[in-house]
């Protein structure tokens, strides 16, 4: 069993978890945009979506619901682009009906994640991003236990600025410390909304919470991504935001975060 | 349903399955005989204990969403505040989000402790008629992470329902974490004897959220929980300067309204994005009393009235199992 795991992940150079104690702060959004940014930087990227009850990645990358094929090494991931630079695996691909609820307790989720980690034939990847559900429970423990045999470079934590969110992310930081996962940095999402009509910036979910949290916990602050209706719309349509809006300030923010992450991985 | 103990052998068929105690995986399991005898299939005795304990609770409402961060806790908190603004009603708010409890902060009672009395755990009171229980009260510091797998979370939820001294209560509001997993199955299972009036489903307008919410609706249908209705939160943002509305989370597939039409569910209302809501939550104050005449507060009040009406026209069906 160990040897098969080695064969499926041994060509994966870096593994990065995307975590947040809080739901709906943009873990899948940040995962998607980081993957696209790294792809545009010429890297081969994989996304493993272990949010079993609410997989968002397939829609955000507009891959629809392709069938997952088997090969000798295991499941073949789904590619988001013809050049096969961006590989994805998600439970979304395995459900017959997309409205179907995955009503599973922990042990079953743990078993599927074990398979997801060991049985996907990723091939050669520069970075594998792991998108997770909110919390500090079964999925997180399962993915760590299984990945740890290979490697985990660390985690990117996503938060929104308000105290209710940073409070949950503080707990996620404790989780990382207890499980000895290196924190690669904190991203503040949804920070500030610039009105398209009058350019007034409203801090809908407050401001600066991510940076403050980074200071408080001695973590790297990777940057803030503003609330941008163009970004949410792109994710709804599964469009490549970075390709469509290279002049926006959101683009600059995301590319900077991706570059900082990449250099910390290569360091 | 899935009832495989965390320490079960691999391929355990589940304690209530027909194969319990009989499948090849059961060979050598210390509980094989118990499972084979059928004793494990009997309902958890806690369900009956909880039913008896909660006979003093008139209405039980779940606040659900498949998606995280759509405003479940914000709504639960404000529903509780609004219901408790009537002094003649007793309101209880139970937070079963074990890994990310936000209720203590939103209710402004972070750092409070739960006290033990002869009749069980005493909840924390925000007002004389508004009691709150959350795992947040049991943690020693705000950094404490609850790194628990399913079975431990289930045990905690059982204790919250069975061992908390709620007293006479008109409304028990249960705030849940996102998803359709352990916490949800447990709360439904443990309340199956006591009965649930119904669930309020929260979503945001965009399809990325709706696709998860449809799963939650499917969950309610599977476990036979009536759906009181759907609330669309964060729908539209009015710029405080120029008063123009922006769709920050655009309803590309018709938003909650279209979903409700398709699934034949009542839409209870839409609440706009208002930075003052988030600020009130961070400060632990009620937005409804901070800015009572704002459009969002009016929307909240209308929704709460619909829930009141639903509850008064609907009595919890006492279905003994």
TrEMBL record, chain A:
<keyword id="KW-0547">Nucleotide-binding</keyword>
<dbReference type="InterPro" id="IPR033756">
    <property type="entry name" value="YlxH/NBP35"/>
</dbReference>
<keyword id="KW-0411">Iron-sulfur</keyword>
<dbReference type="Pfam" id="PF10609">
    <property type="entry name" value="ParA"/>
</dbReference>
<dbReference type="GO" id="GO:0005829">
    <property type="term" value="C:cytosol"/>
</dbReference>
<comment type="subunit">
    <text>Heterotetramer of 2 NUBP1 and 2 NUBP2 chains. Interacts with KIFC1. Interacts with NUBP1.</text>
</comment>
<keyword id="KW-0408">Iron</keyword>
<keyword id="KW-0004">4Fe-4S</keyword>
<feature type="binding site">
    <location>
        <begin position="21"/>
        <end position="28"/>
    </location>
    <ligand>
        <name>ATP</name>
    </ligand>
</feature>
<dbReference type="GO" id="GO:0140663">
    <property type="term" value="F:ATP-dependent FeS chaperone activity"/>
</dbReference>
<dbReference type="GO" id="GO:0005814">
    <property type="term" value="C:centriole"/>
</dbReference>
<feature type="binding site">
    <location>
        <position position="195"/>
    </location>
    <ligand>
        <name>[4Fe-4S] cluster</name>
    </ligand>
</feature>
<comment type="function">
    <text>Component of the cytosolic iron-sulfur (Fe/S) protein assembly (CIA) machinery. Required for maturation of extramitochondrial Fe-S proteins. The NUBP1-NUBP2 heterotetramer forms a Fe-S scaffold complex, mediating the de novo assembly of an Fe-S cluster and its transfer to target apoproteins. Negatively regulates cilium formation and structure.</text>
</comment>
<dbReference type="InterPro" id="IPR000808">
    <property type="entry name" value="Mrp-like_CS"/>
</dbReference>
<protein>
    <submittedName>
        <fullName>Cytosolic Fe-S cluster assembly factor nubp2</fullName>
    </submittedName>
</protein>
<dbReference type="InterPro" id="IPR027417">
    <property type="entry name" value="P-loop_NTPase"/>
</dbReference>
<dbReference type="InterPro" id="IPR019591">
    <property type="entry name" value="Mrp/NBP35_ATP-bd"/>
</dbReference>
<dbReference type="GO" id="GO:0005930">
    <property type="term" value="C:axoneme"/>
</dbReference>
<dbReference type="GO" id="GO:0046872">
    <property type="term" value="F:metal ion binding"/>
</dbReference>
<dbReference type="InterPro" id="IPR028600">
    <property type="entry name" value="NUBP2/Cfd1_eukaryotes"/>
</dbReference>
<dbReference type="GO" id="GO:0051539">
    <property type="term" value="F:4 iron, 4 sulfur cluster binding"/>
</dbReference>
<comment type="similarity">
    <text>Belongs to the Mrp/NBP35 ATP-binding proteins family. NUBP2/CFD1 subfamily.</text>
</comment>
Automatic annotation (TrEMBL), chain B:
<keyword id="KW-0067">ATP-binding</keyword>
<keyword id="KW-0004">4Fe-4S</keyword>
<comment type="function">
    <text>Component of the cytosolic iron-sulfur (Fe/S) protein assembly (CIA) machinery. Required for maturation of extramitochondrial Fe-S proteins. The NUBP1-NUBP2 heterotetramer forms a Fe-S scaffold complex, mediating the de novo assembly of an Fe-S cluster and its transfer to target apoproteins. Implicated in the regulation of centrosome duplication. Negatively regulates cilium formation and structure.</text>
</comment>
<feature type="binding site">
    <location>
        <position position="26"/>
    </location>
    <ligand>
        <name>[4Fe-4S] cluster 1</name>
    </ligand>
</feature>
<feature type="compositionally biased region" description="Polar residues">
    <location>
        <begin position="14"/>
        <end position="23"/>
    </location>
</feature>
<feature type="binding site">
    <location>
        <position position="35"/>
    </location>
    <ligand>
        <name>[4Fe-4S] cluster 1</name>
    </ligand>
</feature>
<dbReference type="GO" id="GO:0046872">
    <property type="term" value="F:metal ion binding"/>
</dbReference>
<keyword id="KW-0547">Nucleotide-binding</keyword>
<dbReference type="GO" id="GO:0005524">
    <property type="term" value="F:ATP binding"/>
</dbReference>
<comment type="similarity">
    <text>Belongs to the Mrp/NBP35 ATP-binding proteins family. NUBP1/NBP35 subfamily.</text>
</comment>
<feature type="binding site">
    <location>
        <position position="29"/>
    </location>
    <ligand>
        <name>[4Fe-4S] cluster 1</name>
    </ligand>
</feature>
<keyword id="KW-0408">Iron</keyword>
<dbReference type="InterPro" id="IPR027417">
    <property type="entry name" value="P-loop_NTPase"/>
</dbReference>
<dbReference type="InterPro" id="IPR000808">
    <property type="entry name" value="Mrp-like_CS"/>
</dbReference>
<feature type="binding site">
    <location>
        <position position="242"/>
    </location>
    <ligand>
        <name>[4Fe-4S] cluster 2</name>
    </ligand>
</feature>
<protein>
    <submittedName>
        <fullName>Cytosolic Fe-S cluster assembly factor nubp1</fullName>
    </submittedName>
</protein>
<dbReference type="GO" id="GO:0140663">
    <property type="term" value="F:ATP-dependent FeS chaperone activity"/>
</dbReference>
<feature type="region of interest" description="Disordered">
    <location>
        <begin position="1"/>
        <end position="23"/>
    </location>
</feature>
<dbReference type="InterPro" id="IPR028601">
    <property type="entry name" value="NUBP1/Nbp35"/>
</dbReference>
<dbReference type="InterPro" id="IPR033756">
    <property type="entry name" value="YlxH/NBP35"/>
</dbReference>
<keyword id="KW-0479">Metal-binding</keyword>
<dbReference type="GO" id="GO:0005829">
    <property type="term" value="C:cytosol"/>
</dbReference>
